[in-house]
Design brief:
Radius of gyration: 23 Å
Main location: membrane
Subcellular location: Cell membrane
Shape: globular
CATH architecture of the largest domain: Up-down Bundle
Membrane topology: Multi-pass membrane protein
CATH superfamily of the largest domain: Transmembrane di-heme cytochromes, Chain C
Keywords: Cell membrane, Membrane, Transmembrane, Transmembrane helix
Distance between the termini: 22 Å
Strand content: 5-15%
InterPro entries: Cyt_b561_bac/Ni-Hgenase (IPR011577), Di-haem_cyt_TM (IPR016174), Hydrogenase_cytochrome (IPR051542)
């Protein structure tokens, strides 16, 4: 029994062969599956509540403070009056204006426009309530921190981090061909993640989410007095806020691409893997395993 458990943890145990496709392999451990779904819930509520908080000051700066006698604005979302007495949404990126009416700055119908940086459908709560937004955001933020701690411990103990997440030299050599396969929507169902999966998972789990946590702490008045080194690390509270926002956009982009790839690669097989742990590999991999 002990040897069987070890094989499962290594992702080496296989199930019965299907007539129409390859063999089932145990690909995702219980820790990977649990943390995956907790992260999904946390990220949803953190993004939507974070956008509510952002509505209180829909501007991003670089440095220790926002500019009054100087301009250090990176992003600004607002509304402007038009010549015909109407209103339009304007988003400025490094000073360059873009008309974002209907999405950012001004949303709703032309007869009854709503002047609001982020529209109601994208925030929790949908109405403007900064206090509730903060409560929701911080509640799920601490759940995210605890889940990340559990994942890091389990990933280091069972070597999931180095074996499955961080790409090695052999993985990087396959990067051009892997990009070509994805561009042609040609997916290989194997026990191991492909190099694009490893790069994206490593980027999110090792870089982006830790940055989200650290920059979030940097913006906290209750944390900075004890951890003042965070301000030096990120070059000021406003820079930390900008990095925090950019990391949020990267997480949202990852989520969109992740869902699209699940659908394109075969949603039943992919969802079975992250729910039950079992994943059906291609016929050729089953034949190679049988030969060994």
């Amino acid at each position: 029994m002990a040897s069987r458990t070890t094989a499962i943890e290594r992702g080496e145990e296989t199930g019965p062969t299907s007539r129409r496709s390859g063999r089932l392999v145990y690909r995702q451990s219980i820790w990977t599956r649990l943390t995956h779904w907790v992260w999904a819930v946390c990220i949803f509520f953190m993004v939507t509540s974070g956008l509510m908080i952002f509505n209180a000051r829909p501007d991003l700066y670089v440095g220790q403070q926002s500019g009054f006698g100087f301009d250090n604005t990176v992003l600004s979302i607002g509304a402007e009056r038009t010549g015909d007495g109407g209103v339009r949404g304007v988003t400025r990126v490094f000073g360059h204006p873009f008309d974002t009416t209907g999405f950012l700055g001004v949303s709703g119908s032309a007869d009854n426009p709503t002047i609001r940086a982020i529209p109601a459908w994208a925030t929790i709560p949908s109405y403007y309530d900064l206090g509730t937004g903060r409560v929701v955001h911080f509640f799920f933020a601490w759940i995210l921190v605890a889940t990340m701690l559990v994942w890091w411990i389990s990933a280091l103990v069972n070597r999931h981090l180095w074996r499955d997440i961080v790409p090695g030299g052999k993985d990087l050599k396959r990067l051009p061909s892997d990009i070509g396969d994805h561009a042609r929507l040609r997916f290989h169902h194997t026990r191991s993640y492909n190099v694009l999966q490893k790069l994206s998972y490593a980027g999110i789990l090792v870089v982006v989410i830790p940055l989200l946590i650290l920059t979030g702490l940097t913006m906290s008045p209750g944390v900075v007095p004890s951890w003042s080194w965070l301000l030096d690390l990120f070059g000021g509270r406003q820079t930390a806020r900008t990095i925090h926002f950019v990391c949020m956009l990267l997480v949202v982009l990852f989520f969109i691409v992740h869902v699209l790839m699940v659908v394109a690669a075969g949603p039943i097989n992919e969802l079975r893997s992250i729910i039950t742990g079992w994943y059906r590999v291609d016929d050729e991999e089953s034949e190679e395993e049988g030969a060994r």
